[in-house]
Specification:
Elements lengths: L12 H14 L3 H29 L8 H8 L3
Length: about 80
Amino acid sequence: MPKHYRMNITLPGAVSEELESVSKELGSKKSHIITKALELYFDELDVEIAEKRLQELENGESNLIPAEKVWQDLGIE
């Protein structure tokens, strides 16, 4: 079972009220709703990060390392 961490967060009033409302409507814990919301948002951020890295590559701001070189460096030929 994954480890859970307790955190204290501060939310804007409107977000806190909506979270409370959704929690009651679904009969779900607020922590569960926040976890699911963050997981969805992290998926969206993954796309944003990938697009940023691609743009950096296209602009010559970063370089690719051929897979063969990585495998060789790791001894996985």
